[in-house]
Amino acid sequence: MVIRTPDQRLRIFVSSTLGELAAERRAVARAISASRLTPVMFELGARPQPPQEVYRAYLAQSDVFIGLYWQRYGQLGPGMQVSGLEEEFELSGRLPRLLYVKAPAPDREPRLAKLLSRIRQEASYRTFGSPAELTRLVRDDLAVLLSERFAAARAPAAATPGTVLSQPGSRGPRPLPVSVTSLVGREQDIEELAGLVGHPGVRLVTLTGPGGIGKTRLAVAVGERLGDRFEAGTAFVPLDAVTRSELVLAAIARAVGAELAGAGSPLQALAEIFGDDRWLLILDNLEQVVNAAGDLGELLVRCPGVVILATSRTVLGLRAEREYPVPPLLLPADPAAVPLAELESSPAVALFVDRARAVRPGFALTEDNAAAVAEICRRLEGLPLAIELAAARIRLLDPAALLDRLARSLDALGTGMVDLPERQRTLRATVQWSVGLLTDAERSLLEVLAVFTDGWTIGAAAQVAGLEEDRALELSEALARHSLIYLDSTGPGPRSRMLETIRAFVAERLAARPDAVQVGGRHADYYRALAEQADRPLRGAGQNEWLDRLQAEAGNLAAAVAWYLAHDPGPLPHLFRVLWIFWSLRGGYLAEVQVWVGQLLPTVGSLDPQAQAELLSTALAAANLLGDRSAGLAASQQLAPLLPEIDDPFLRAVSRLALGWASMITGDSDGAIRQDSAALEELRRQDEPYWTASAVLSVGSFKAAIGRDEDAVRDMNEARELGDRFSYEGPATWSRLMLGTLNVLRGRMGEAQKLLDQALDLSLAARNAPFVTLCLAAHARLAFGEGDLERTALLEGAADGLRQRIGLRAWPMLRPTETELVTRLRQALGADRFDLAFSAGSRLSQREAVAVVRDRRSTGTKESVPERPPGAEPA
């Protein structure tokens, strides 16, 4: 078939699907005709021939190829493996190409997205939004093409070795990708990077981070910001499809609009292209071709004007390299503690809301969904890709339902937009891409590291993986270079971490290994040994250091307990006894401890007396702090007969101490004082300063409960002295609470306020929520003593609300006095006023309740109160 044209004008073949781009095809035809060229279009051809024959003949006789793409991939003809659209692109390789992609494309078909991904490796394209914009682009690009390529072609010159030929269809550097969504929450990163890349003397900056952190988007934004600083040009070089390091230089050449045909040395050819000119090269996805680092280093040496901004999951290791680890987006604050507008301005939440609106235009952050949205962002750790994938699910799910699904599996994130690279369609694909780049040894260690919860030390990793520490360090450094783990230096000692979104998938690989149970056992044994190391320091002068150390390992300790429960519960009673000080002082674990203990209690009769005593004393202590009267009594009834059989003097003393608490629950105050006084005498004969202070506190508290105030004050002062001398959080705080309450009874309000303020400060510094509830209740009693009844009701409500939110109940021995206080408040204020103030207090966050305590202004409701207010007992 021959194309019939009226003259010998250049023929421009226009490739696209016909239906969805009809207006654009007409716009291109007008632009071509206005340039006195001839548009060659399928629909103008004779129809008797098969369609494939028509476009093949047209392409064979055309001089320039224009490709238009939007959402449809096109039809597959009989016997064809690809559509006519894709075959037309394949057949156009000998021609100059002008390629245009319409955006946005929310419904782009997957095969077209894959074709566009391939096109990005072979050529560059420009995006457009309307037929008018396309007309301008085509007219301008044709003018450049005619002046630069065809005019130059009239000067014949033989290509000699080393010649750099223009790339077919070249129009200068590959343009930066045009994003169809906004970049949210990266303003500070853009500023920092722009300053770094634009700084004289900086030649290579590598953005590192795990897949989905947003490295490419950030690099492109920096390129846009610095475009005017690089006069020769800014070129985007996608390398995700380049699997051989020796092809990186060729990819750079294509991106800047040159072909290395006939060149003896790609490096020398690029050096001739760049010369001393100022270029910014954005090399995207370098992680799989890091062996090209040597070539890139030499390129920087030969071309003093070239600056490279690379994105990679691993650093290149060049001396000129400056690494910029891309952080996750900042996470939101507690929704209960900040206004809605402030929460919405949080980068992670702002990204979620922006992407949710793209799929559900009416979506908004509200008081009802704010907590769920914030928790989704926290659960996904600020990882932009994960947040975007989650937000896409808002099309069909409300935030609360999405959060529930996320709690069960991160696969709930589903798939992303079709114009994302294939490896980023799901979070699983992103992680698998990264894992696939590792060596076998690196991959094995990464899988083992999934057994850890909330971080680990190198020593722990080595023991659990069965490696020498130097080898574990070497492999860990490799994993850090791949951005699969990272170093956290914010705690009491350096430790490594893995994003939970990565760990969730790596843990699946570990679970599939035949040695998974053995890995879990080595992990449990390591943390059991760590707890044994902590035993004596927790009871002596090194308590605070070990509390901080165990706090950092709380997740791993819980995982160790879970493993022993499932596989070997024998060591648990002793482990519970050792860790009780940590669990009781740092709060937040008591309910979980009670569940663990409850799983072992049915087997308590099969244990030896010492293990029984350790398990039952832990059960009794947990029930006491949680206010679980029935569980405490049940444990005490089993523990009491064991005392004569306990050989260990320390265990016998702390078991007796626990039994004293149980006696107080039943109202046997004399028995409680007798038991705990005996325990105190035993502990004084041992080197047990912490438990001695605890016993003094117990005895003093019981004396205060029955009105022996003078004796109670003497005991509390001794406990405070011990607490301050050894820096014990519990005794130092509890003694001040009791002394403050006793001073309220004596009418010494100024001294009471000072002591209770100190107790609150200590509780907040220790991040001990149970102690904070006791401080709020004690300040309520102070307000009652001062006659400020509405303030009393507000603080009582705050204590009750916080207690309920963290799963605590008032101690059984305190309930009568607390009930009495509430009854008298209701009578004094009237039911409506009391309920209003108490309800308002119960809704206060911890931060808001503390602010009420520290705001000394009266509520204006002063009324007469009894000389000895209810609640004189320990708070």
Strand content: 5-15%
Arrangement of strands in the largest sheet: 2-1-3-4-5
DSSP, total strands: 14
Shape: elongated
The value of Rg in angstroms is 36 Å
Helix content range: 55-70%
* Terminal Cα span: 98 Å
Mean pLDDT reading: 83
Major sheet details = 5 strands, parallel
**How many individual helices?**
38
| Low-pLDDT sequence parts | 1-8, 45-49, 150-171, 416-425, 857-861, 864-875
Instruction: Return the structural class.
Output: alpha/beta
Please explain how this structure is put together.
The protein contains 38 helices and 14 strands. The protein has 875 residues and is an alpha/beta fold. The strands form four sheets. The chain has a five-stranded parallel beta sheet, with helices on both faces. A five-stranded parallel beta sheet has the order 8-10-11-7-12, sandwiched between helices. Strand 3 (64-69), helix 3 (84-91) and strand 4 form a beta-alpha-beta unit. Helix 12 packs parallel to helix 14, helix 31 runs antiparallel to helix 32 and helix 32 packs parallel to helix 34. The longest helix is centred in the middle third of the chain and has 24 residues, at 516-539. The protein starts with 10 loop residues before the first strand and ends in a 21-residue tail after the last helix. Mean pLDDT is 83; it is low at 1-8, 45-49, 150-171, 416-425, 857-861 and 864-875.
